[in-house]
Design goal:
- This protein is mainly β.
- The chain has one domain: Beta Barrel (Porin), CATH 2.40.160.
- The chain is 5% helix and 65% strand.
- The chain has a twelve-stranded antiparallel beta barrel with strand order 1-2-3-4-5-6-7-8-9-10-11-12.
- The longest helix has 14 residues.
- The radius of gyration is 18 Å and the shape is globular.
């Protein structure tokens, strides 16, 4: 039973992973529950294929590794995606994230810092480098699930790949305020529903704001294997030229935990 609970928790962590198309840091989603002391992690992915009028196939993989001690939790996270339309590459993305959280600083909140690099071809993002820190806490927790929030600051540097004559600058440097709310509901012994909502306005220019809602359902089919369905909504008040302000994504996946 203990192994199964641990498997469900890790499956939930994977279910909370961000959509790379969101093009922004999803801080809380990367450090949601308490992993066990020592080394642990997960490996997952999904494949989408379509034939007939359109030959379409896409691959997405994700991996993470935790190293937990009595005083801190280290996380290394990697994501990648590649899509083909009629045998030509049309979309690709990648992310590498490193995080350290300190567990003995306070009983009421968890301070942490992080660094990340990523790119996202569908969002015209050639390269992004982010570093920042903050703290998160829980307002309520029980057998039903948990409710929490967090806040912090992050420094964001972006290089965009834009068409000639674009109005949006190709290079930007922003200090953003990141705030989030999370809700986790244990629906059944093997099924968990989560909602993560967060807002990232630029300091000094709150008109330049990004927001994201992620709704996930994760269910365990064995102690080490889980399935997940997720719906992501992304809104960017100042998108690059040619991109819509609102994006939605529906994904399914499978995850192996160890």
């Amino acid at each position: 039973m203990r192994a199964r609970r641990r498997g469900r928790l890790v499956a939930l962590l994977v279910a909370l992973l961000p959509s790379l198309a969101a093009g922004q840091v999803e801080i809380e989603a990367l450090s949601r529950d308490d992993p066990p002391v020592g080394l642990s992690g997960s490996l997952g992915g999904d494949v989408t294929a379509r034939t007939g009028n359109v030959d379409f196939i896409s691959f997405d993989v994700r991996a993470r590794m935790y190293r937990v001690s009595e005083t801190r939790t280290r996380l290394i996270q990697g994501n990648g995606g590649l899509g083909f339309l009629d045998r030509d590459r049309f979309a690709s993305s990648g992310l590498l994230h490193y995080r350290v959280g300190y567990t003995r600083v306070s009983r009421h909140f968890l301070p942490e810092w992080y660094a990340q690099i990523n790119y996202d071809r569908p969002q015209q993002l050639a390269f992004r480098a982010v570093t920042g820190g903050g703290a998160r806490t829980q307002f309520a927790r029980g057998a039903w699930g948990q409710f929490g929030a967090g806040t912090g600051l992050m420094l964001e540097r972006e290089w965009l790949s834009l068409p000639d004559g674009a109005v949006h600058p190709e290079r930007t440097l922003n200090l953003r305020w990141n705030s989030f709310l999370t809700l986790r509901i244990v629906a059944t012994e093997t099924t968990v529903i989560t909602s993560t909502t967060y807002v990232q306005p630029a300091i000094g220019d709150f008109v330049d704001t990004r927001a994201l809602e992620t709704l996930r359902l994760a269910t365990s089919i064995t102690e080490s294997l889980a399935l997940s369905v997720s719906w992501d909504l992304r809104w960017d008040a100042n998108p690059p030229d040619g991109l819509a302000a609102l994006d939605t994504t529906l994904r399914t996946g499978v995850t192996y935990t160890y």
